Amino acid sequence: MVIFSHRGIGFGRKENSVEAISAAIQDGFSVEVDLRLKGDTIVLSHEPGQNREDEPEFDRLLEIIEKRQDILFALHLKENSGFLFHKVGEEIRHL
Predict the structure, then answer these.
(1) Average pLDDT by stretches of 10, the chain with 95 residues
(2) Which of 15, 37, 56, 81 has its C-alpha lying 20 to 30 A from 91's C-alpha?
(3) Taking Cα atoms as reference points, which of 93, 77, 71, 68 lies closest to residue 34?
(4) CA-CA distance, 11 to 26, in Å (whole number)?
(5) DSSP class of 57
(6) Residues 72, 63, 55, 76, Cα dihedral to 10°
């Protein structure tokens, strides 16, 4: 059985943040995160149109994924965008 921390929730940090993801991993959980486009940049974000400056870019998550290939990550692509699907697939293939 695999238990996922949904957006890193449950570890006292802001959801979809690098800190929440890292805390979930440290406690042995796999992680599900939400991905959206902010212009041409992929960010970790649950709600559309938030445009917050504190939304981590996908590159930060890729750094964690690359270091922790023993952990499962579920990437929830929140927009119906060919660009988003293509870009995420391209980045994951390079790991």
Answers:
(1) 88 87 92 90 80 81 90 90 89 82
(2) 15
(3) 77
(4) 10
(5) B
(6) -30
